[in-house]
Amino acid sequence: MSAREEILARIRTAVAGAQDVEIPRGYRTERQVDDLVGLFAERVDDYRAIVHVVPSAGVPAKIDECVRGRRMVIPEGFGRDGGWDDLRTADGVLTNCAVAIAETGTIVLDHGPGQGTRAQTLVPDYHLCVVRADQIVPGVPEAVARLDPSRPLTWISGPSATSDIELNRVEGVHGPRTLEVVIST
C-alpha cells in the first residue's frame, strides 16, 4: 500500500458513518464588466507588463515591431514561420493564450496550439503574448469554466517576479523577466 492509499484509507475509516453535510457555496460566478479590453489592459499594465491594444488587422505589424532583432521561439500552431528552436539561445517566445482574465490581468495558457510547452514559455527572458478580445472574460470563475482541468495550465500575472528577504523586487527568477501583451480588437 502506498503512502497515499494509506492516508486515504485512514480518512475513509475516520469518516465512516458520518452524516453528509451540505456546504453552502455562494461564490460569485459571473461579473458584469462594460469594457473587458480596457480593464484587462489596465490590470496587465499594473503588473509592469508592456501592453498594446491593436486592431486585428494591425497585429502582424505590431508583432514584427516587438520581435525585431530577437531570436524567438514560435510554438507549433501559432500560424507564423521562422521560429528559433534552441531554448538555450532564444531571446523570447511568441504565444497566444487559452483565456485572459480582465479582473486580475491574468493570462492562462493551456499549452494548446500556438501556446508552446511550459519550458518554451518559462525559459526565455521575454514573452510576447497575443490575446484576442474574445478570449478576455470578466473574472476567474468565467475563465475556469472555459478551461479543461486535465490540461497543463500556466497562469501568468505579469513578468516573473519575487522579492528577497529585504523586499527588493527581483524579476525573471521563475520565468520571463519581460512580458509584452498585444491585445487584438
TrEMBL record:
InterPro entries: FTHF_cligase-like_sf, LUD_dom, NagB/RpiA_transferase-like. It comes from the Bacteria. It holds the Pfam family LUD_dom. Residues 87-183 form the LUD domain. This is Lactate utilization protein C. It comes from Nonomuraea aridisoli.
